[in-house]
Write a structure and sequence with these properties.
By secondary structure, the protein is of the alpha/beta class. It has a domain of 85 residues: Nucleotidyltransferase, domain 5 (2-Layer Sandwich), CATH 3.30.420. It contains 4 helices and 9 strands; from the N terminus they run E-E-H-E-E-E-E-H-E-H-E-E-H. The strands form 3 sheets. The protein has a 5-stranded mixed sheet with strand order 6-5-4-7-8. A two-stranded antiparallel sheet has the order 1-2. It is elongated, with a radius of gyration of 27 Å.
């Protein structure tokens, strides 16, 4: 498309769109989302116990978390221990076939852990997976050398 300027010269319009900046912005956003996605999965800081046998988490389930201050969370939302059973029942589905993950800080007393387990069992959920981290076997192998 051509047009005439005020001084009488004929010029063509720039009709091409430069998509290089658009691609750059999209790639930067993609990298940002790739980095922040694992952090968004669980925003509650918990040092889970370390064990030798660890099963990879392969499916989405509800997560009950007990942090080091013994505060209880259901899917990153704080909840009272007395409301936990009712909230788990209200989440829908057959509680007999429902499964949850239980994350607990390694410094939480067993009594607090047992209270949460009792609330989960009272809700009718029997399939509970306890979340742990893999044990560092390098430190253990070095300790067995003197025996």
């Amino acid at each position: 498309m051509a047009f005439t300027a005020n001084n009488g010269q004929t010029r063509s319009s720039l009709a091409e769109i430069n998509i290089t900046p658009l691609v750059d912005v999209v790639l930067v956003l993609l990298v940002i989302f790739m980095i922040t996605e694992p952090v968004l999965q669980s925003g509650i800081e918990v040092n889970v116990p370390k064990t030798r046998t660890v099963k990879q988490i392969t499916e989405q389930r509800m997560v009950v978390t007990i942090d080091r201050d013994q505060q209880i969370f259901l899917n990153d939302q704080p909840i009272n221990i007395h409301d936990l059973g009712a909230r788990l029942k209200a989440s829908g589905g057959d509680t007999a076939h429902q499964a949850i993950y239980l994350r607990s800080d390694e410094r939480v007393p067993f009594g607090a852990f047992a209270s949460v387990m009792d609330a989960v069992k009272q809700a009718g959920i029997t399939n509970v997976s306890i979340v742990t981290e893999p044990l560092d076997t390098k430190g253990i192998a070095g300790n067995n050398g003197g025996q």
